[in-house]
Design goal:
alpha+beta; Aminopeptidase; Alpha-Beta Plaits; 2 domains; 5-stranded antiparallel sheet; 20 strands; elongated
Amino acid sequence: MYQKILNKAKAYEQETAQFLMDMIRIPAFSTKEKDVILCIKKEMEAVGFDEVKIDGLGNVIGRIGSGKRVIAFDAHIDTVYPGELSLWKSDPFDAKIEDDKVFGRGSVDQEGGMAAMVTAGRIIKELGLGKDFTIWFTGTVMEEDCDGLCWQYIIKEDKIRPELVVITEPTNLNIYRGHRGRMEMQIHVKGLSCHGSAPERGDNAIYKISRIALEIEKLHERLRDDDFLGKGSVCATQVFFTGPSQCAVPDSATLALDRRLTFGETKESAVAEVKDACARAGYPDAEIEILVYEETAYTGLVYPTEKYFPTWVTPPDSPWVQGAVATYKELFDRNPLVDKWTFSTNGVAISGMHGIPCLGLGPGNEIYAHAPNEACPIWHLSSAAAFYAGLIHTLGK
């Protein structure tokens, strides 16, 4: 059966690449994904999915099978903006094939995974692999803005709770089983404005936030390490201030932080460490805020969430990881690299918040995510499609 799956995936390889190019040619930035969602819905229907729907947040959800066991495959289909266009060798939205790769924004992060998923669904359907399963294929929105929000909605509002979710973010065709969590914080300090010609009359908020920033730099070196996920990190990323004029001492300042959480670090521990850093700078009364995401989806819905995204790890001896490794060996006749993502994925909600096991395998190399001249090898697309279909066959034995 594994050879039949490989043969099917190879036979559909050019169609998979064409579907990926169709998606790339429709810009799909966070909160602006409607047209690419409709493109995916049309493709799912064309290849024979049993059901295709769009939920209230705008996620497209396809279904194959109606068995008791529930498995899901996920790809976020929003992309980041292209950035400086002069860094691209060609138009990032004029998808093309060159050197056996599909070039364009989203080819790796993460519409390549979506293309491979749809082909996998087609293979599963044609070979009758999912008889015991209900298999959901989710094209999810707003991940680049707020990872996991889409799956908070799917779990809480759509009432879909799989026994396993396969995340198709780029892994260079390796198997991934976790990544660090993250959170977005701001530190606020107050000052006292006065005329800039006599700064001693006031209390300069920029000086305060600058001293705190230096303590945040030191905090980074003290953070916890983990043998698998690596070290936690904290980085000052933005500075804001208010004041009456350019000729006045500023009366408030804010420092934005990007915090990556390794295994064992929590929201509470991270906030306590930042409070300690503020105290070391001499400002124990500085305010620490965890930000909230409340942008409007293309459907018009606002679904707020705190910007705390927990760490998650699926144990290497879990039946899911072992099943994935066995599938990989059967299909490709070699041992996979089992590793982790550097960046964050929807797994922060699926596994980190809701305890649903996740694993990942996706086409493309994550080093090209958010980079100019993003490109995904075509053979990655067919290999990923074969893996997704093969995993269903393995789990159904």
